[in-house]
């Protein structure tokens, strides 16, 4: 069974609008961490935001926020005021404590295209 | 500020040849990871080191793959007798043990094409 599911292969958004990228996860462990990474065409994976399973507040980092719904096992990324430079692949990832520290399990990604 | 660097960025080889990739992590990071990413997929974990010790290997890491981190600094990933199925992007990442979220810092990857 997939541990991380990203159901949107591709998304389009108009510049300056907000967009939500979906991510659901599957784990039976109460302690885990959720990450979002951006991968532009250059190939480098760029860390965006982190949410711990015990964090009370939804994580925010500048224009990025994570809509964490624990009961639904979802961790959607919200990008506000989209910019042309936001066009990239976006990956949701999970780290389970049973795995090695840093052994992240990634979803298949969502390709975001920002239209001018 | 020097990030994670990988070399070479691109490698084209014929089936059956050996290839080696190098990764230089962020200098103070004690953990180093290798991932493989094929087209249309997210990165898949291969192996990781803490200092010079290789602490975990994925089932994806067949006998033809070997990774080393001899002095706890840079790492090499060697693939022997390459097969067409080895064609992928090989990503290296590093992190510092003890940070709150264990964020991984990735390099730009080494793209391997096996003809």
Textual characterization of the structure:
The complex is a heterodimer of chains A (116) and B (115). By secondary structure, chain A is an all-beta fold. Chain A has strands at residues 4-5, 10-14, 19-21, 24-25, 33-39, 46-52, 60-61, 64-69, 74-79, 88-95, 105-106, 110-115. In chain A, strands 2, 5, 6, 10, 11 and 12 form a six-stranded mixed beta sheet that branches. A four-stranded antiparallel beta sheet of chain A has the order 3-9-8-7, with no helix packed on it. Chain A is globular, with a radius of gyration of 14 Å. Chain A starts with a strand and ends with a strand. Chain B is mainly β. Helix content of chain B is 0%, strand content 49%. Chain B is built from no helices and eleven strands. Chain B has strands at 5-7, 10-13, 19-24, 31-37, 44-50, 53-57, 65-68, 75-79, 88-95, 105-106, 110-114. The interface between A and B is medium-sized, with 25 and 26 residues.
Summarize the structure.
By secondary structure, chain A is an all-beta fold. Chain A is 0% helix and 48% strand. Chain B has 115 residues and is mainly beta.
| Computed structural class of chain A | mainly beta
Determine the structural class of chain B based on helices, strands and strand pairing.
mainly beta
Residue ranges of chain A: pLDDT <50 for 5 or more in a row? none
Q: What's the average pLDDT of chain B?
A: 92
Query: Biggest sheet of chain A, open or closed, and with what strands and sense?
Result: 6 strands, mixed
Count of β-strands of chain B: 11
Helix content of chain B: under 10%
Instruction: Spell out the helices and strands of chain A N to C.
Output: EEEEEEEEEEEE
Task: Give the strand tally of chain A.
Answer: 12
Q: Biggest chain pair contact, residues each?
A: A-B, 25 and 26 residues
Per the principal axes of the C-alpha atoms, what is the gross shape of chain A?
globular
Rg result of chain A: 14 Å
Query: Helicity level of chain A, as a percent range?
Result: under 10%
């Amino acid at each position: 069974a997939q541990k991380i599911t990203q159901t949107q292969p591709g998304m389009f958004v108009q510049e300056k609008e907000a967009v939500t990228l979906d991510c659901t996860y599957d784990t039976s462990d109460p302690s885990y961490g959720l990450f979002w990474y951006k991968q532009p065409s250059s190939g480098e994976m760029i860390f965006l935001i982190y949410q711990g399973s015990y964090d009370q507040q939804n994580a925010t980092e500048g224009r990025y926020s994570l809509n964490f719904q624990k009961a639904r096992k979802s961790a959607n990324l919200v990008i506000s005021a989209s910019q042309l430079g936001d066009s990239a692949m976006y990956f949701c990832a999970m780290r389970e404590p049973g795995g090695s520290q840093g052994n992240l399990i990634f979803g298949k990604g969502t390709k975001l295209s920002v239209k001018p | 500020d020097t990030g994670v660097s990988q070399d070479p960025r691109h490698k084209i080889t014929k089936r059956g040849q050996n290839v080696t990739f190098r990764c230089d992590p962020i200098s103070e990071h004690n953990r180093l990871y290798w991932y493989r990413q094929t087209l249309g997929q997210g990165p898949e974990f291969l192996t990781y080191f803490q200092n010079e010790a290789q602490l975990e290997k994925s089932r994806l890491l067949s006998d033809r793959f070997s990774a080393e981190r001899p002095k706890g600094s840079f790492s090499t990933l060697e693939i022997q007798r390459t097969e067409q199925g080895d064609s992928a992007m090989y990503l290296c990442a590093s992190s510092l043990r003890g940070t709150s979220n264990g964020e991984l810092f990735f390099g730009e990857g080494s793209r391997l094409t096996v003809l």
